[in-house]
Amino acid sequence: MKRTFRLSPGAFWQVHKEAANLLANEVVGMAKAQGFDPQGQNYDLYGGVGLFSGALAAAFGLDLKITTVEASKTAAEDAKRNLVDIKGAKSVALPTERFLDELASHGKLKSNSTVIIDPPRSGAGRHVIDRLLELSPAHLIYVACDPIALSRDLKPLTEDGYKIQKISAFDLFPHTHHFETIVSLVK
């Protein structure tokens, strides 16, 4: 991915210099395999400074429609700056739970929707998963740094009809028990 990201002090970024590209490329590959619609209802939850939104724009063009949601106002401002050239990009500074509550009040997402979710180590949690089930996006890409939280969050999704299309794991912290997992789910 040929894109530069600016980060404020204290903003989250992967420690290894190649990790962000590795994860972004995998997310883009999964989106392509799912039949990602750049003009669909697309959301990048816990979107940080806009890594995955930027990667999707690099792959699908600057007309991409995507909303990046991030609780940290500083990171959301960074995302707004990092995605300024993407015509359909929005950056929302809200906790994901509150954003999804508002979004769910408008009914289900359209059939061309994709949601990328990259929660903190604790996972998305039941409230977010319940809202995603209510919104029923056609495609989900879940990026996780804790396999226990991931399995807890995947259980209700798969019980509700989501099928795991692909799972990829990355050892970004050699000689530790930590690894990143990316899961592609389709309904």
Task: Briefly summarize what is shown.
The chain is α/β, with parallel strands linked by helices and 187 residues long. The chain has helices at residues 19-34, 51-60, 73-82, 96-104, 125-135, 147-159, and strands spanning 42-45, 65-70, 88-93, 114-117, 139-144, 163-170, 180-186. Strand 1 (42-45), helix 2 (51-60) and strand 2 form a beta-alpha-beta unit.
Architecture blueprint of SSEs:
Blueprint lengths: L18 H16 L7 E4 L5 H10 L4 E6 L2 H10 L5 E6 L2 H9 L9 E4 L7 H11 L3 E6 L2 H13 L3 E8 L9 E7 L1
Parallel strand pairs: 1-2, 1-4, 2-3, 4-5
Antiparallel strand pairs: 5-7, 6-7
Helix pairs in contact: 1-2, 4-5, 5-6
Low-pLDDT residue spans:
none
Summed up, the domain count is 1
CATH homologous superfamily heading: Vaccinia Virus protein VP39
What Rg, in angstroms, do the CA atoms define?
A: 15 Å
How many β-strand stretches? 7
Strand content: 15-25%
Biggest sheet architecture: 7 strands, mixed
Number of helices: 6
Shape: globular
Beginning-to-end CA distance, first to last residue = 28 Å
In terms of structural class, how would the helical and strand content be classed? Answer: alpha/beta
For the record, the CATH class is Alpha Beta
Order of helices and strands: HEHEHEHEHEHEE
Structure description:
It is a single chain. The protein is α/β, with parallel strands linked by helices and 187 residues long. The chain has a single domain, classed as 3-Layer(aba) Sandwich (Rossmann fold), CATH 3.40.50. The protein is 37% helix and 22% strand. It has helices spanning 19-34, 51-60, 73-82, 96-104, 125-135, 147-159; strands at residues 42-45, 65-70, 88-93, 114-117, 139-144, 163-170, 180-186. Helix 1 (19-34) crosses helix 2.
